[in-house]
Amino acid sequence: DSGVTQTPKHLITATGQRVTLRCSPRSGDLSVYWYQQSLDQGLQFLIQYYNGEERAKGNILERFSAQQFPDLHSELNLSSLELGDSALYFCASSVMRENTEAFFGQGTRLTVV
Amino acid sequence: AQTVTQSQPEMSVQEAETVTLSCTYDTSENNYYLFWYKQPPSRQMILVIRQEAYKQQNATENRFSVNFQKAAKSFSLKISDSQLGDTAMYFCAFMRHNNNDMRFGAGTRLTVKP
Question: Is B47 helix (H, G, I), strand (E, B) or coil?
Answer without folding.
Answer: strand
